[in-house]
Specification:
alpha+beta, 5 helices, 6 strands, globular
Length: 170
């Protein structure tokens, strides 16, 4: 099974297990979530954390469901008057992909950009989004945009030690 297919299957499995009922209740993917996601994407472009002029970091081997090779950024960030930690993960997919191949041509295998923006007021403490490389939002199998309190993201990240939703702190 190819890396893209495995990634899609893993993501669908996460939503089938944890997100079906939540997606129907529109706990994420609301108009407010879409507006926040659009503002966040533009702010990331302005900070060169996304888009055609994005800076890059050393790629490393990834894990499901994010990708075969990842680039990750952690930064204090401000959006719409709210300050918090921003975690940007560039998810690269291709059969046989290596960190060296991503370093040589980081745009060739970029499949998605997944983001966590710290929001203490949010139920999980974070705003979540999964963008395609062009800045459009991915969707659940039933058509709900992956932005806001995304059930699949929360169900996986709630397993991070310390209850902070961030595996890198473990």
């Amino acid at each position: 099974m190819g890396a893209k297919l495995k990634f899609g299957a893993a993501l669908c499995a996460v939503f089938a297990i944890g997100g079906g009922a939540v997606a129907q209740d529109a706990m994420f993917g609301t108009q407010d979530d879409l507006d926040t996601a659009a503002a966040l994407w533009q702010a990331m472009i302005d900070a060169r954390l996304a888009g055609e002029d994005a800076i890059h970091t050393r790629p490393y081997e990834g894990t499901e469901p994010h990708g075969a090779v990842l680039e990750t950024f952690y930064a204090p960030f401000a959006l719409n008057g709210q300050e918090g930690q921003l975690i940007v993960k560039r998810n690269h997919m291709a059969e046989g992909l290596t960190p060296g191949a991503v370093w040589d041509d980081p745009d060739a295998s970029l499949a998605a950009v997944t983001v966590m923006f710290e929001q203490p007021d949010a139920e999980s403490g974070w705003f979540w989004a999964k963008y395609f490389p062009d800045g459009s939002l991915d969707q659940t199998p039933d058509g709900v945009a992956l932005a806001g309190q995304a059930a699949g993201c929360i169900s996986c990240h709630s397993g991070a030690a310390g209850g902070d939703m961030v595996f890198a702190n473990d």
